[in-house]
Every structure is written in C-alpha cells, then in structure tokens.
Amino acid sequence: MSFHGSDIEKIEEIYGIPKENIICYSGNVNPLGLPYSLLEKADMVVHAMESYPDREYNELKKCLAEYVGTVKENILPGNGSTELIIDTVEFISSKTALMVAPTYSEYESELKKRGCNIRYFILREEENFKLNLEELKGELSNNYDLLLLCNPNNPTSSAVSKDEIMEILLECRKYNTMCMVDETYVEFSPVGEDISAASLTESFDNLIVLRSISKFFSAPGLRLGYAICGNRDLNNLIMGRKMPWFLHNIAVFAGCEIVRDKNFINDTIHFIDKERKRVVEKLKSSEYLKVYEPHANFIFVRLINTDMTSEELFERAIMKGLMIRDCSDFRGLDKGCFRFCLLTEEKNNMLTDFILDTVK
Ligand SMILES: Cc1ncc(COP(=O)(O)O)c(C=O)c1O
C-alpha cells in the first residue's frame, strides 16, 4: 500500500498509531513553523474574519508581486497551488499533454478527469534525473497543448535551470504549447534565482508558473498559492470564472504578512541549506544508499546493495513513528526509492540514524 505525503490520518487508521506519535517526514513542510510576523499578529489574523476580502484581491496581488519581482497584473491567487493546477488544466484546452515524470501525481489526476491524452517524458535515473533537453525538444514536435514540469521536481529533488526553461519555452512557442512550471519548492533551492522561471513570464505568454505558501511558509492549512503569468487573456479567463470571495480574508491578511517576513525567509534558507548538506553527507557514508543531489527541502534516495525494498523500509520506519515517503508508486520509479523532508536537526538525526541502522 502506498500513501501520499500528507496522508497521516490514513496511516493512523491503518497502523493504529495515534497521529500525535507520528513524525511526518513526507509532507515537505518547513520545520521552522509559521513565519514570526504572523505569530506576532495572531490577534489581527483572527480579526480578519470580521470583513469581506476585496473582491479583486488587489492588496494580496501587490504583496505577492513585490515578493516575486513582477507586476500585480501577473499574479493569480488561488486556494493552494492545487486550485491553480486545476485551473491550468481546465482553461488551457488540453487534449494532449506531456508530463515530465516521475512527478507529483495531482497533474495526472486532473488531466485524466478531463479525458486528456497524456504522454510521459521520463527522467532517467542513470542521468541522475537530469532533464535531457535535446530529447525533450525533439518530443515537443509532437504538438502538445500543455507541457507540465515541476521545478525542483517532486519526488526526485532535481532541477532544471532557467536557461534550459527558456530553450524549452522557445520550442513550445513553435508548436503553440503552453508550459506550466510548478515552483512549489523553488525557494528552498540553494540556487533558486538560477532555476526560477518567474522572470520569464514577462516575455513568454505561453508560460504559467505556480507557487505555494504551504511548504516554504509552513502554512498548508491556510490554502494559499498563486500563479505568475504574463498572458492577460489567460489571466482574465481564469480570474473571470472564480466565485466571488473565493479566498477568505485570513488568507489575504496572512499572505501579505508572510511574504514580507525577511528574517523568516533568510532563516529558512540558511537552516535548510545547512541541514541538507549535513544530512546528504551523513547518508552518503553508507554503501547501501545512493543519494541524489537535492534542490528542494527533501532528499531522494535509492536503496542499493540490499534486498530491502522502500516498502519494507517504510513499514519499519512507521512502526517507530517515522513517516517517510515510499516512492514506488510514482510513474517511472520502482520499489527501491524513498523520499524524506528535512525537519529539525534532532529529528533529522533520529531518521538518518534509523535509516543507517536499518539498511546495513
Ligand atoms: C509539487 C507540488 N505541487 C503542488 C502541491 C500542492 O500544494 P498546495 O498546498 O499549495 O495546494 C504539492 C503538495 O504536496 C506539491 O508537492
């Protein structure tokens, strides 16, 4: 049986372990908790309920635009990046789509719900899950309506550079292919500026970039995400179909506060970078593990020189209350891979000690 990263209630039910006793290394949420400024203004968060949000969400768009360095007209807020995945698939008439895989499963579910014909461009493990640009460019000549790319990619934590994305977009333009780049994890990358396609939305109207507040700002319950898109027709189409006040005022207030919290942003970047380096080095010492270079706040690992499967490792870990993500259900992967996200130093040690002890 496989579980999604946030299926903690399902785990509680099946394994009979109270969810308070489970440490979730599969949700990919920043361990520093909510941004400091939001906690300081907890009272104001509550009082935000007393008024309707602005129907146009102008203030929120302005704050998000400032944060990413664009104009507010290019920002589309959404109920988590999930809503924007659904919008993209719905409003770009996608009869045929190309998905770079293995990747986040929601893209496929949404495409399938709409009867889309999906092809997969598989990242090869022997190429360290690095995108083969020339091959992808060749594949694009098959005329797709939509290309879906997750950057950094969930679950492999691999990344594509902004220059490569530009080449992809130029190729997509030739075939009228729209490109969705999901940057849910981009702020965690040690080279975020070099891989983010956000600035390319100024010059490419066949690009929509998705961002999330859930992971980096540690607020998955807020349900706030946004898209960056320079294509005004598409923006008007998406925003024009939203129900009035589709985001509540707490998301509006909190969203504006969160992205201005420079101390929290810097602390997160430094903490994740330090832990990522430390944990990778620690796991690399084992002859039973192959650790792939991570760009996100999670680490993708293959079990080697052992008969143990990722499913078995998951089972043993969950019995200790440690919930990792067995990646065997991802398209293009098998029973040897797993993923876990970085939590506090103590929790990272707890999990890595367990893994090193169990696989040997
Ligand atoms: C790659 C990716 N995109 C989008 C999402 C959904 O995020 P949100 O909470 O913003 O809807 C997730 C959640 O795990 C994810 O991993």
Description:
With about 350 residues, the protein is an alpha/beta fold. The protein folds into 2 domains: about 120 residues, Aspartate Aminotransferase, domain 1; about 220 residues, Type I PLP-dependent aspartate aminotransferase-like (Major domain) (Aspartate Aminotransferase, domain 2), CATH 3.40.640.10. Helix content is about 40%, strand content about 15%. It has 14 helices and 13 strands. Helix 12 runs parallel beside helix 14. The longest helix has 23 residues. It starts with 7 loop residues before the first helix and ends with a helix. About 45% of the residues are buried. The structure holds pyridoxal-5'-phosphate. Pyridoxal-5'-phosphate binds next to helix 5.
Give the topology string: H per helix, E per strand: HEHHHEHEHEHEHEHEEHHHEEHEEEH
User: What is the count of β-strands?
Assistant: 13
Poorly predicted runs of 5 or more residues = none
Domain unit count: 2
Please tag this protein with its features.
360 residues, alpha/beta, Aspartate Aminotransferase, domain 1, Aspartate Aminotransferase, domain 2, 2 domains, seven-stranded mixed beta sheet, four-stranded antiparallel beta sheet, 40% helix, 16% strand, binds pyridoxal-5'-phosphate
